[in-house]
Design brief:
alpha/beta; 6-stranded mixed sheet; 4-stranded antiparallel sheet; 8 helices; 10 strands; binds adenosine-5'-diphosphate
Length: about 240
């Protein structure tokens, strides 16, 4: 080992750094997801083929059980048990090791979970700091960004509370704040306003619209026609198939 041997960068981020590739942000080819259950095979996603360009704002709609959350989890690189091809900025996610997918997710994606998934033993402020901690940002700067975000979301008074001390709607707001705080290239949101009052829901959609106008790609799952109107187009899912 020489003095010049650098320790490997965490999870080989360099290997997955986007190249100046012209093409879709997301390209899926025949993506399929199957669950093996006692009752047999359940197909949850069938031959999903779609491209999403950088800068799009797409809504995924469809009945409960259609496979919307499953598709979003694959796009967010949170699920690796599927078949087919999925390219992210030209990189073959289907061929990546787990570590590389995690690195790609941390670097580029903000995810709003349907069930919030906040970390129970961290405060609101600490939950918001997590995505920033993956970036090369100084502690003092992180604190300033967290303070600013708390202010923007009207949650300054909640910053030292734990998720269990918040209502469902408040947890959802923290979930949205956490997804946007580090300015990801792609925001994936699973029914992000499902537990919010209509005025709060509208504010979140307006925030997404603003981020989209600034270049962030947004893919949301929604049951609301109203929310879908903030986007450019709708992908309809039914029984695991894209129907429109
Ligand atoms: N672990 C699992 N085992 C078997 N089936 C599952 C599992 N998780 C989800 N499913 C099934 O996958 C289908 C799609 O689920 P999901 O993606 O959550 O739908 P949506 O978000 O559109 O309501 C549902 O029929 C659901 O029952
Ligand atoms: Mg769902």
């Amino acid at each position: 080992m020489s003095f010049f041997t650098k320790s490997p960068s965490p999870a080989s981020l360099r290997d997955v750094e986007p190249q100046p590739i012209v093409g879709p942000l997301i390209s899926m080819r025949n993506v399929e997801k199957v669950f093996e259950t006692a009752a047999g095979r359940t197909y949850v996603l069938r031959r999903i083929t779609a491209d999403i360009q950088a800068g799009e704002f797409v809504s995924i709609m469809g009945p409960s059980g259609a496979g919307k959350s499953t598709l979003l989890a694959i796009l967010g690189m949170l699920d690796s048990a599927w078949s087919g091809e999925f390219f992210f900025v030209g990189h073959p996610v289907h061929a990546m090791a787990h570590k590389q997918r995690v690195a790609l997710n941390k670097e580029h994606i903000g995810f709003v979970f349907q069930q919030y998934h906040l970390i129970d033993d961290l405060t609101v402020a600490e939950n918001l700091d997590i995505p920033l901690s993956y970036r090369n940002v100084k502690k003092s700067e992180r604190e300033a960004i967290v303070a600013d975000t708390l202010d923007r979301f009207g949650m300054v008074g909640k910053k030292d509370l734990y998720p269990r001390q918040l209502s469902g709607g408040q947890q959802q707001l923290v979930g949205v704040a956490r997804a946007v705080i580090a300015k990801p290239k792609l925001i994936l949101a699973d029914e992000p306003t499902g537990n919010l009052h209509s005025s709060q829901g509208r504010e979140i959609m307006e925030l997404f619209k603003k981020l989209n106008d600034q270049g962030t790609t947004i893919i949301q799952v929604t049951h609301s026609e109203e929310n879908a109107k903030f986007g450019h187009r709708i992908i309809e899912l039914k029984d695991g198939w894209i129907t429109a």
